[in-house]
Amino acid sequence: MRQPPRPKVPMSPVAALRRICFLLERARASHYRVDALRRTLETIRLIPEAELRERARSGTLKQLKGVGDTSAAIITEALRGEVPRYLAAVEGEHGDESAWEGGELHAALVGDLHVHSNWSDGGSPIEEMVLTAVELGQEWLALTDHSPRLTVANGLSRERLEQQLIRVDAINAGVAGSFRLLTGIEADINLDGTLDQDDDLLGRLDVVTASVHSKLRQPSFELTPRMLAAVRNPRTNVLGHCTGRLVTGGRGTRPPSTFDAEQVFRACREHDVAVEINSRPERCDPPDELVELARDLGCLFAIDSDAHAPGQLDLKHLGCRRAEQLGIPAERVVTTWPVQDVLAWTGG
After folding, report:
1. Helix or strand or coil: residue 333?
2. pLDDT tens digit string along 225-269?
3. Cα–Cα distance between 122 and 28 in angstroms, integer?
4. Which of 159, 262, 300, 317 is the residue whose CA sits 20 to 30 A from 105?
5. Is there a single domain that holds both residue 145 and residue 270?
6. Are residues 176 and 116 in the same domain?
7. What is the pLDDT of residue 234?
8. In the Cβ-directed half-sphere of 204, how many Cα atoms lie within 13 Å?
């Protein structure tokens, strides 16, 4: 993976705002701080530059929805041909690209099997996620918004998922030949081990990432068969953040779930399901010892970002560092595969 280019001076207000949001999201700054700038970005995207210049001259930028003091200053300074002061400060704090290098495995990554948009609990439109993925040098991306049961994350009903499939087709028509957006879902694993979406609709998707989001403290004798049933489901392609642990971050910490990992990972190997190495620093899931177990059992892996914002797509360097340290060979990481090989593997 490469790094997105820094916008050159003079830069458009859109380019300046996109760069600021990318750096803040990658550094996992407060989403309140970023959301306001993203709202400004969506407001000004379709406004002609001449109108922005006139508003900057007349002092009426803040009459636009979502434009406040900070964003008005960014827009005005960019229109003057200057590097906005806010951007310069963020570059100084978060712009060191050497900190985001992930070694040979990171360089080999061409895709991602776990990404969210603002159709569920992500912060940006699908198109912005795709544009950033392209800038990062990815060749494909699976859109895996949440399933209906996870109402707190605005999970997609059948009807909304069908609408999303139409949107994905339109996006792919616009980027044909240079990038592929895969249809997908992060399906919740129900208490009985079934997946939280209609089976016929799951069958229309390119990829299904299955994850446990509820009853994480179930005893092993209940959670193990629940996970085994999900892994054995022919629709499942990836087992997402399998222990559900949280090791840091604003949501606090949470211990890993207890299940028979050897049984579950043997089932993953037998049913060609990839074990996700979730790159989010608050998850760092699975723990090292479980990654080593899955490695020794011969499992496939998916190094995923679990991105909820464009800048978070670059978190995969963290998962790659762990995978390299733990001796995971690149050929067993499905997110290094060309998209046609991925689709042959998933049956998509």
Report:
1. strand
2. 999 999 999 999 999 999 999 998 777 899 999 999 999 999 999
3. 13
4. 262
5. yes
6. yes
7. 97
8. 14
